[in-house]
Fold:
Amino acid sequence: MGKTTEEKAIEIAQLLEDGKGQDVRVLDVSELNSWTDYFVIATVTSSTMQQGLARQVKDYVKENDMEIHVTNRKAPDGDDWNLIDIGSVVVHLMSAPAREFYDLEKLWHAGKVLR
Structure:
């Protein structure tokens, strides 16, 4: 039996935490929209960390027969926010200033915090 989407989201969060991502959170937003079920949010301290964690997430996606949806993103300052859309899971790797400014946890406060 395969892993549930929730289990995959939690595993991705653990992967980010193991890679020194900070304040890692998983939000269940499945009842709030039709385009994704979980947000995994982590604060990164440098563009190098962001690139490394993004690579680890992409490796996890390949190993677990998931697919990254191609997205066009424009970040005003370049490295503040990296969004990885896996369909039912969306991973947000954010600098501390971007995370504070966009405050996804507050914006999606009706979502259930799983970790």
